[in-house]
Amino acid sequence: MTSQPWWQTKSLADMSDDEWESLCDGCAKCCLVKLEDADTEEIYYTNVSCQLLDTESCRCSDYAGRHRIVDDCIKLDRSNVNKLQWLPKSCSYRLVAEGQPLPEWHYLRTGSRQTLHSYGASLRGKVVSERDVRDDDIEDHIIKWID
Question: How far apart (Å, rounded) are the C-alpha atoms in residues 113 and 80?
């Protein structure tokens, strides 16, 4: 009998901090600048990434200090993963919380952190840093992401 991987048998609440962190697939879509319509509360995605995102590796350049540097960086955790409706449908945290399997390109399944890039599942080559976009121009960068 083949045993199931730990992410299929443990609840998010039962995962260690290391297990929780390892669920992150590295797509970096949560690092996009998002705009909210004040009237409708609809969220609009842009192709502008957080100033701390390394757009080549799709990793935060200062993960430990990100909340100190970026005021509105949201700490994704076990208590809010089900409340953040803007998380992409492909987000591994969201999938596991919903009892769904990890994507076939997830490194916990493939053993390689490069697979998501070769599948086109990350933001590599698809975004510009907010360091390179004026605040007044952010609305010009609204796009529709396909999950």
Answer: 25
User: Helix, strand or coil for residue 107?
Assistant: helix
Contact 52, 70 (CB under 8 A): yes
- What are the Cα distances from residue 110, in Å, to 87, 105, 114? 23, 6, 9
* pTM: predicted TM-score of the whole model, two decimal places: 0.86
Tokens 């039962």 sit on residue:
14
Any residues with CB less than 8 A from the CB of 49 and at least 6 apart, and which? 28, 31, 32, 33, 55, 123, 127, 128, 129, 130
- Cα dihedral 53/128/85/41 (nearest 10): 130
Q: What is the pLDDT of residues 83-105, one digit of tens each?
A: 998 898 889 999 999 999 999 99
The amino acid sitting at 80 is N
